[in-house]
Write a structure and sequence with these properties.
Strand order of the largest sheet: 1-2-3-4
Oligomer: single chain
Shape: flat
Number of strands: 4
Order of helices and strands: HEEEE
Strand content: over 45%
Number of helices: 1
Helix content: 10-25%
Distance between the termini: 38 Å
Largest sheet: 4 strands, antiparallel
Structural class: alpha+beta
Radius of gyration: 16 Å
Length: 91
């Protein structure tokens, strides 16, 4: 069961994001076995449709994950996101 605070946060996010359509494209997944499970990385590009249906890139970066095997299957134990673009000084 999902904790109450997590459900509330997800509900707020859904309401906030209803007015803007953001698409997520994940590419170049690389998974490497480890003694405790696996690690992986994947590139993320977020974009949204423009006024003339030309997409605008909102964010580009890379996830670094740690995976573990559970009785319910593989799960992400830890996920870090490193944003590559736009840079920190970009509005």
């Amino acid at each position: 069961p999902m904790p109450k605070a997590l459900k509330e946060m997800y509900s707020r996010l859904r309401k906030t994001n209803e007015s803007r359509l953001i698409n997520h494209l994940l590419t170049n997944l690389v998974v490497t076995p480890t003694k405790d499970g696996a690690t992986g990385s994947v590139y993320l590009t977020e974009f949204q449709p423009g006024d003339k249906s030309e997409p605008t890139i909102v964010r580009f970066g890379r996830y670094y994950d740690t995976y573990v095997r559970t009785p319910q299957g593989w799960r992400i134990k830890r996920r870090e996101f490193h944003q590559m673009a736009p840079g920190p000084s970009t509005p």
